[in-house]
Each structure stands twice: as C-alpha cells, then as structure tokens.
Amino acid sequence: MPDRAGRLVLLNGPSSVGKSSVARAFADAQPTPWVVFPVDLLHAQRSRPDLTAPRDDMDEESWQRLFRRTRAGYHRALAGLLEAGLDVVGDHVLSEPWRIADLVEVLADADVLLVHLTAEPEILAARERERGDREPGVALAQRDLVYAHGEHDLEVDTTRRSPEQVAAEIARLLAAPPASRAFDRLRRG
C-alpha cells in the first residue's frame, strides 16, 4: 500500500502548444521521480493507433464512441497512478465539456494542479506545420475550446519560453500551491 497519494500536474492546451516538451522538462527537473503520462500515449497503445478520425471501415458514431472511451480510460488510469502513490505530469486537450467534468468526478479526492499552456496563433500554426503529423488547422480550432471551462491554477504562454522555463514556472507553483484550486472550483460548479 502506498504511504501517500500521488500528485498530478495536468497540462491543458491545444495541439502543438508544447505540452509534451514541457511535461518532459518538468519531470526531468524534479528531485523525485515523476511519471510523464500524456493522453496520446493511451491512443498509441490501441491496435490501429493511427485511427485519429473515422475511416472507410468505421462510421462516425463508432469512432466517436472509441475516442470517448479512450479518453475516459485515460482519466481512470490517471486516478489509478495517483492512488498508487505516483506523482504524474499529464497532458490533455480539454476541448469538450465532458472531459473536464469526467476528470473532476474521477479525480474527486486527488491533489491536482491544472496548468493552461497557451501560444500565439501564428506560433501554433507554425509548430503544427513543422510537426507534420497533424491535420493543418487542428491547433487553432482547439485553441479557444480547451480553455472554455475557465479555471486554471497557472497559465503560461509558451510562445517565447523554452520548455525548461515553463517547467520552472510550474515547479514554483508546485512548491507553493494556491489554497483554492481549479479542480475545487470546478467541483463547486
């Protein structure tokens, strides 16, 4: 049995904002072990991990069910890691209201810091083009949706900051967390 529950730093932002790079930089800079657990990791573990949109052999409704189950599974996997006493830095795209509502419910007793990562639109578009593994325009389409729930414990613009600089800001938040947290405010509705 773990001697304590783990802590979660949850990075939220659109595609190409730098969540994965920041998560790795944050974990690597911590004096204790942290698990880097991005939502895309769970998608990559499915058979047919390239299934990011409906194909000829899957209708839209079936694809949406699969995508939602994968996201819901990620939320429950986060809860399990925390319950096991592991500190986790996760990254997510909270672009649909059900995602944040489900997380708030599943992580009801968890120690969560919600960090919004932002970037200027032209930077998001450029990073998306450089990656080459995303459909053009996804990052900009997600940009407003991911912050629609309005709550966060920290917001950091990644436009002109390195992942290490952003990670240092998050580490300062972790060292002195706010008394009132985003997840608590979201629970109260």
SSE arrangement:
Elements: E1 7-12, H1 19-29, E2 35-38, H2 39-45, H3 60-83, E3 88-92, H4 97-106, E4 111-118, H5 121-131, H6 138-142, E5 154-157, H7 163-175, H8 182-188
Helix pairs in contact: 1-7, 3-4
Distance between the termini: 33 Å
Radius of gyration: 16 Å
Q: Give the uncertain stretches in residue-range form.
A: none
CATH architectural name: 3-Layer(aba) Sandwich
The mean pLDDT is: 91
**CATH class wording:** Alpha Beta
CATH superfamily: P-loop containing nucleotide triphosphate hydrolases
CATH-defined topology: Rossmann fold
What is the domain tally? 1
Oligomer: single chain
**Topology order in helix (H) and strand (E) letters:** EHEHHEHEHHEHH
Strand order of the largest sheet: 2-3-1-4-5
- Count of helical regions: 8
Shape: globular
Pfam families: CPT
Protein name: Chloramphenicol phosphotransferase
Features of this protein?
about 190 residues; Rossmann fold; five-stranded parallel sheet; 8 helices
Q: Would you kindly provide a written description of the structure presented here, covering whatever features stand out?
A:
It is a single chain. The chain has a single domain (7-188), classed as 3-Layer(aba) Sandwich (Rossmann fold). The longest helix is centred in the middle third of the chain and has 24 residues, at 60-83. The protein is globular and about 50 Å long. The chain starts with 6 loop residues before the first strand and ends with a helix. 47% of the residues lie in helices and 14% in strands. It is of the alpha/beta class and 189 residues long. It has a five-stranded parallel beta sheet, with helices on both faces.
